[in-house]
Amino acid sequence: MTGAEFEFGLWLSALPLLLVAAMLTWLLSLPLRNVGLVEPLWSLMVFAAGVVYALDSDPRAPRMSLVLWLCALWAARLAWHLARRNAGQPESRRLADMRARHEPHFGLKSLYLVFWRRVLMAWVVSLPLLGAFTSIAPLGRLDYCGMLLWLVGFVFEAGADWQLRRFNASAGTADAVLNRGFWRYTRHPNYFGECCIWWGFFLFALAAGAWWALPAPLLVTGLLLRTAGLPPFGRNRDSRRPQYADYVLKTNAFLPGKPRE
Fold this sequence. Notes:
- Helices cover 69% and strands 0% of the residues.
- It is an all-alpha fold.
- It starts with 7 loop residues before the first helix and ends in an 11-residue tail after the last helix.
């Protein structure tokens, strides 16, 4: 496996499209006073960047169709899930707290605090897509490992989201805690699944020689574990649902494992 050249110009060419998409969504968020519109947009921006790379890459690249279809499936499902979850709802607690901290004129500030930040994230996270398209080397073991890891991640993420949606619709009390299915083995199966998906995409890029795509899965993992994942999620749920404290003691925080007695 030889190293694949990093095509900075091609990577940069996706940025204007992402900025335009973010700008239009930001303008729509102003009258609605809801910056939560950025959440379903994020995965679609990653896929849009992948399309830009594919249009200007060698059509003989054997990973192009496979990786692009996998990315489309991930992006469409996640965007639909988030849009459905947020429809008719106010801003999440995290975004509402951000709005309160940055008033007055949060509407204007949200362009760079929320929307441009998501553009930067999507741009960096799209690196494995760019990397996977840079080589015409045939598929090998790393590609099959990437495909398997992506599949595990997608099943965890989609399955956990589906179970949580059903649980929230049928839970008898506000204190109930979901501790079945994927949620029996990890407190954050959807986050674990998202990490697996992007490490899977990285393996496709690595198989093409694009080791320089490593910042993408590292960024996703870091954001899920620190910024958007474990600490704030755990604190909020623990404070609102007393049964969650027992669930925390018995269940792994991130990596799936056998529940503790």
